[in-house]
Amino acid sequence: MAEGSEDPLSAAVVSRDLSTLDMVAEAVKHDQSMLAYQPVMQAMPPHGIAFYEGYIRVLDATGRVIPARDFMHVVHDKEIGRELDCLALQHGLKALAKSPQIRLSINMSARSIGYRRWSKVLENFLKKDETIGERLVLEITEASAMAAPELVIDFMDRMQKHGIAFALDNFGAGTTAIGHFREFFFDAVKIDGQFIRGICTSPDNQAVVRALVGIAKQFDMLIVAESVETEAEAEYLVSIGVDCLQGFLYGAPTVSPPWLEEMKRRNRA
Question: Looking at the chain, which terminus has fewer C-beta neighbours within 10 angstroms, N or C?
């Protein structure tokens, strides 16, 4: 390639990322965001719903719902990423306030711990309803937790009095030093979906997941397997000690709160 000429692929990626950033900024500016909810099921009888996970969604200019995977990689390290964390938390806490029968997990970045607006959202809801923290699970990815472990540990310590639970997301995909488990206050781990998909036919994935389950059990943490898509995968995961299952086998994320739909069905019956 001639010196000084621009790599067209790189230029296309930069252009796409800028377009994505603009789309998210417009959605935040006009309050065009919502949560999509997916159930996390108990692995053992009575196989009820342990809690729901709320995923942030934004609407583009045409009103189309855009999933986080399409924009989070572009915004996670920018201030707009903190704004999205604020919106996700706000939507989630409003849902918990309206529906006291549910538990809900919300994703957050360690970067948001020091973001004043995010902290204020959490403080305001905890002041209004002392029980809301006991139904809130905050999910932090391995990569995010390990980028600022002292900050995360201090935050967890302060939140214990409110009963907030913490889940380590994407467990196995990052670089968590096992020694840190003694310092963190994680109540649950969510095993990364890359190790779950096709686990029945992959001895490598089976070995990894068994090891991750062993580590989590050693530290008395609830174990959730993500991306469960078949009955065979579910049966295998239950057989090795996984506590909860999440994935398309039990339902895709939906912007219509499933617990409200269930209540409507019961009222019609």
Answer: C
Answer for the pair 225, 210: CB distance below 8 angstroms, yes or no: no
The amino acid at residue 10 is S
- In whole angstroms, what is the distance from residue 127 CA to residue 132 CA? 9
> Does the predicted TM-score (pTM) go above 0.85?
yes
pLDDT in tens, the chain (269 residues): 444 445 777 776 667 778 999 999 999 999 999 999 999 999 999 999 999 999 999 999 999 999 999 999 899 889 999 999 999 999 999 999 999 999 999 999 999 999 999 999 999 999 999 899 999 999 999 889 988 899 999 999 999 999 999 999 999 987 666 677 778 889 999 999 999 999 999 999 999 999 999 999 999 999 999 999 999 999 999 999 999 999 999 999 999 999 988 778 778 76
